[in-house]
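Limitations

Structures in this collection are predictions, not experimental determinations, and the ligand pose is part of the prediction. Treat each record accordingly. The example that follows, with nicotinamide-adenine-dinucleotide as the small molecule, is included so readers can see exactly what is and is not provided: the inputs are given verbatim, and the output is the predicted complex.
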Amino acid sequence: MGRGVARVSQSASLDQLAKRIRAKTARVGVIGLGYVGLPLAVEFAKEGLTVLGFDLDSSRIEGVNRGRSYIPDVPSDDLIQLARTKRLSASAEFRALSSCDAIIICVPTPLRKTREPDMSFILSAGQAIATSLRRGQLIVLESTTYPGTTDEVILPMLEAKGLKVGRDFALAFSPERIDPGNTRHTTRTIPKVVGGVTPTCQRLAVLLYSQIIRTVVPVSSTKVAEMVKLLENTFRAVNIGLVNEIALMCDKLGLDVWEVIEAAKTKPFGFMPFYPGPGIGGHCIPADPMYLAWKARVHGFEARFIELADQLNHSMPHYVVEKINRALNGRKKALNGSRILLIGLAYKKDVNDTRDSPAFEIAQALSERGAQVVYHDPYVPTACLNGLRACSVALTPDELKRSDCVAILTDHSNVDYDGVLRHASLLLDTRNHYRHLTERPARLISL
Ligand SMILES: NC(=O)c1ccc[n+]([C@@H]2O[C@H](COP(=O)([O-])OP(=O)(O)OC[C@H]3O[C@@H](n4cnc5c(N)ncnc54)[C@H](O)[C@@H]3O)[C@@H](O)[C@H]2O)c1
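Predicted complex:
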């Protein structure tokens, strides 16, 4: 009888949670207010739920509370409005986690120097939750990680004090698929995959995301949900690796890889275009497949496609440097002593994220060979380039003319490319920005 009563009251706390989510009176905690966590927190708050954001970075906490956005996809006006109505606030006061009904973890998952998973951020977020875990809470991990993390790493931490998953609290994994800078597919419109540790966990997590996301895709386990994300990003990394290899081949064969891709993509089935570039960057594509390769290695399996794509993608910055070197040689100039202007430090178009951007490796290799490197990036006013603080230079005719070579590494929308083409004496276009030109001057070279 006593045990029966206890069981009823325990599952009642999760029933209560479901009611609070449906009524939008649930309080949502988001740990990690970066490119993933901030847009998510904003969507829940816009939907009328009260959101507490947790971060260790005081400038980000201040940004949220003062309505100053640091993520281009999130307008400051939204933050001002949500702070005013007290729907969204941020702090580093982790004790407040116990007041949250649902907690979503959006902390970084980088690689260590050894290129193995760095789980320290997930561990510290998990520990902060475990310290104040109570009945009736739903915890969701969103950080991209290897299959097994939710069940093997987070679950034991949360159950350590005797609470039981699926009965006292719920735990799920739901990969984040946001594409920063993409205005067509956004947090609300990108379908969300959700896997729970138990069926109750899955139902609650699906219910939570259904408040803000149009299509929620339930899968049978947290491991499947973790693997879905790694399949998606491994697919990208491998295909980019393949097309980078095709670009290197086309260079040897004297073919224009861009023309080849344009023609190939007219096939209405069985082909999907990927494009070569100066290398891959950002927090996801270079790192995520390595999480999978690591986990596979633990099980005695060698992930050959991943390793090969990683090698190819990492060879691209050196190919770019060699391309500049050859082009300068063709004009009887040496790389040593030349001034090289790099356009675009961010790892991709229209974002301010420079994490793992190949531009840094290119800048370093150029300066190691004696070049003077400057950069222009409308999204990155200052950066640490080759160990020194550098400022984005203005793209004036003078600046363009005095550079021995200008290299477009990232094709942000808000750059005056006509001016660049008019004034640069030698221009390397690694993104095929000038694809529509009918006549290409000899001083314009492509990847
Ligand atoms: N950036 C993307 O495009 C993208 C897309 C999909 C998935 N992801 C994944 O989402 C996760 C987060 O990525 P991001 O780009 O938002 O990272 P980010 O670095 O922009 O944001 C992470 C935030 O977490 C904070 N943080 C770190 N440890 C913390 C802790 N213990 N407690 C509280 N806050 C902590 C950091 O200060 C930072 O503000 C990663 O696993 C990433 O792979 C990222």
